[in-house]
Amino acid sequence: MQTLTITRPDDFHLHLRDGKAMTSVVMDSVRRFGRAIIMPNLNPPIITTKQALDYRNHILACLSEDSGFEPLMTLYLTEDTPADEIIHARKSGHVYAVKYYPAGATTHAESGVRNMKNVYPLLEVLVAQNMPLLVHGEVTDPEVDIFDRERVFIDQVLAPLLDRFQGLRVVFEHITTRQAVEFVKKGPENLAATITPQHLLLNRNALFNGGFQPHHFCLPILKAEEHRQAVFAAATSGHPRFFLGTDSAPHARSEKESACGCAGMYSAHCAIELYAEVFSLAGCLDRLEAFSSHHGADFYGLPRNQGTITLEKRSWAIPATLTFGDKELVPFRAGKECQWKLKQ
Ligand code: DOR
Ligand code: ZN
Fold first, then answer.
1. What is the DSSP string of 185-207?
2. Residues of the chain whose pLDDT is less than 70?
3. Which ligand ends up closest to the CA of 173?
4. What is the pLDDT of residue 257?
5. Pocket of ligand 1, candidates 14, 107, 175, 246: which has the most ligand atoms within 8 Å of its Cβ, to mutate?
6. I need a labelling partner for 163 at 20 to 30 A (CA). Which of 23, 187, 230, 251 fits?
7. What is the three-class DSSP state of 135?
8. Annotated catalytic sites, by residue?
C-alpha cells in the first residue's frame, strides 16, 4: 500500500464555532493539524483581545493536555477597532492576525468594514506590529455579479491597498479565480493566498448537479472550470506563497437546507486527505508537504511543526452525516468515497 509521511500540517483558515458545536468538530482538525488560524466570525464577533483569549480557552478546554494543538487566534476588524486593541492583541502572544470582512459579505460579517479606506490608519498599526491582514476578498456591491466579486475586489480594493502599504503582510484568503492566482504570483513577497479543498476539487456545476446542492454553497462561491484549473495549478505548482487553508465552516443541516441557506462547507473530517487527492491527481504528491506544512508557517514567520502524520492510499466511505452539537451536519463528500486515509 502506498503511504506518505509528511511534517504535521497547519490549517491557515478554520471556523471552529463555539460551545457544543465546536466540541463536535474540533477533534477532526486536531487529529490532522498542528495549528490552525481560528476565524473570529462568531456571533458576537471576536473584536477584542479579551474575547480572543477567552475563545482560545474554550478551544483548549475541549482538548486533552497532550493534544499538542495550537489555536492561532485572530481579531475581527471593524471600523471602530481602537489602534491600542491591535497592539494589545500582538502583546498577548496568542493573536496572530487580523481578519478583514467586507460588511455583509458572508456569515456574521455584519460588523465588518464598509470601506477599506476607513481602516487605513489601523493598517499602519498592523505594519508597525508586523501582523498580517487576512482578507475576505470580495466586493459586496449588489450590482456586481456574484461570480465577479473576487475579480472586482482585486482591482478596486486589493491592488490599491498593496500599493499604499508596501510593508503590510496580506493573506488573500480562499482564492477562487484565475485573476487571483495571477495577482498573487506577480505580487510582492508580502502577499500570499490560502486555497480550500472545495475550490480545488469542485467547479460551479457542483452547485446544480441533479438539483440545487446547498451543501456545495460557500463563499466565495464555486467558480467555472477554467478558474478551478488555475487554482489547482497554483496549489500544486510548489510556489511558496500559496498554502493550505481549508475554510472548513460547519453549519447545521437545517441551516443549510433552508429557504435562506448558510454559506460554508465542512471539510475538517477529511481535509488533508482531500489535499492529498489533489496532489495525487496532479502527479506531484512530493509537493503536498510544502503546501500543507511549510509555506504557511514560513509566511507567518512560525517554526515548522516537529511531528509528522502518515496518509495511506486507501479508499474509505465518508459518513452521510456527522453530529453537530444537538443537531447534525452534512460533511463534504457525504456518503461518497475518499481516496486517502489518515493513519491514526
Ligand atoms: O462559506 C463561507 N462560510 N464563507 C465564509 O466566508 C464564512 C464561512 C462561515 O463562517 O460559515
Ligand atoms: Zn472562512
1. HHS-TTEEEEE-HHHHH--GGGG
2. none
3. 2
4. 98
5. 107
6. 230
7. strand
8. 247
